[in-house]
Amino acid sequence: MITQKLRKKIYDRDGWQCVACGTPAGLTIQHRKNRQMGGSKSLDIPENLVTMCGAHNQALEMDAEYAEIGRKNGWKLRQWDDPAVIPVRYPDGISWFLTNRFTRRKK
Ligand SMILES: [Zn+2]
Q1: Contact status, residue 8 vs residue 46, Cβ threshold 8 Å
Q2: When comparing pLDDT for 36 and 50, which is higher?
Q3: C-alpha 22 – ligand 1 centre gap (Å)
């Protein structure tokens, strides 16, 4: 479960913007590795969570072509991927590794 406190820490880390398009509007949390398939709360960890707008969050789930783009950018992972070792591309074009301490490390 994503608490308000956890949500705010993720938004803070990501600069209160969608990692895909940079908008500050309509933000939500994207699970890089899908929670339904992977099980549980163990996926509610900082490395597995990124800030996304509702439209991109939904596109990753509904649109196979966009999901592929999401995988190239590290926004969406396969169930066997380790979120700590696959970087996330941000709107400034820079890819970062996410840490379990709500920080980012340059690729
Ligand atoms: Zn977006």
Answers
A1: no
A2: 50
A3: 6
Domain that holds residue 40: 4-106
Nearest to 30 by CA among 59, 50, 15, 45: 50
Cα 88 to ligand 1 centre (Å):
14
Structure tokens at 23: 């908008």
- 83-106 average pLDDT score: 96
Tokens of 3: 């608490």
φ and ψ of 92, to 5 deg: -80, 0
Q: How many domains does the chain have?
A: 1
What is the pLDDT, as a whole number, of residue 106? Answer: 87
Question: 10 Å Cβ neighbour count for 68?
Answer: 12
- Rounded to the nearest angstrom, the distance between the alpha carbon of 62 and the centre of ligand 1 is 14
